[in-house]
Amino acid sequence: MASYDMTGKNALVTGATSGIGRATALMLAENGARVAVAGRDKERGMAVVYAIRANGGEADFIPADLHDAASAKELAHRAAETIGPIDILVNNAGVAAFGPTEDFPEETFDAIMATDVKAPFYLVSEIAPAMAARGGGAVVNVTSISGSIGIADSAAYGAGKSALNQLTRNWAAEYGRKGVRVNAVAPGPVRTPMADRSGDIPDALAEQAPAGYVASPEQIAAAITYLASDESSYTQGTILAVDGGRSAV
Fold this sequence. Notes:
alpha/beta; Rossmann fold; 7 strands; 45% helix; 15% strand; oxidoreductase; oxidoreductase activity; Sc_DH/Rdtase_CS
């Protein structure tokens, strides 16, 4: 794994109690960042915190159920109060639900848009201006291959991730000249609890990709960590596909 110096930086990772978020929190901490582990499950969140601390890192758990502007703004404020000004924001929390369009429940559609689009929007609205005022920062959005290619039974989920891709570009244009870099990682199939609930989709996608296998959360976290680091200083507004080549073929 590449090593980056994030000593003295404070990172907020949403959806950090499992899967990609957990792996990202651990990796950022390994590189010296103090991490706010945000999520709904306190037991799993504290397990991440203890793992970081056991490895000599710094971390705190902040409970968060991201579903609207108020919950996003509250998390931003609590994170800053707990670990200090946020230098790195990883928008990883998301709702994944799949099914045919004609049978898709409205409440599930609304939940996807609330967590995958609205919450990141208002987290950035609270955190990015403060980053700019201090002269710099990094935002990394975790989107999906579903936001750029057509996948059956993924219309609502793909629409949410596509929106987050576009927000990434818009925020890069809005905040880049102010010292805040905004990028996204678009994973392909990854072996996470969320992916396991999606049935055969991860394995089917992996079979069509040049890599030919389902990724580990750590492989995605490595890309997120790079984009959060100063080593990616000339990378802005990019949607980095980490999908085993599936979107290329």
